[in-house]
Amino acid sequence: MSYTTHPTGVFGTGITVGASSITIPYSALESYNSSTSGDVREFVYSFLEKLADTVLELPATGRWSKVTVGRSVSVVNDETLRKTYNIICDLNIQSLDVVDEA
To answer: Which domain holds residue 66?
Structure first.
C-alpha cells in the first residue's frame, strides 16, 4: 500500500473535505471517547494516535517522506503512560507549503 495525501487515506470514509473545512467524524478516531467530547485534549490525543497508527502501519517504502510521523511510549509511574509524537514537515521556504513527494 502506498501513501496517500488525501485526508480519507488517513481518516477513512465519512470524512468531509470542502473548500473551507474538513470534518472528521468521531468514528474516524478509534480512541476518541465521546463521553469526554468536551475535552479538547482527548480530541488532540485521538487525532495524533490515528495519524501515527495510519502512517506507521504502512511499509517504510510507502510512507510520506516530506511529512514524517513518529511515536514513542514510556512509563511515567504505576498509573501513567506517556506517548510522545514527533511530526516533521519539509516546507517550501517561500510559500510554506509542504514539499511535494518525489
So the answer is: 7-89
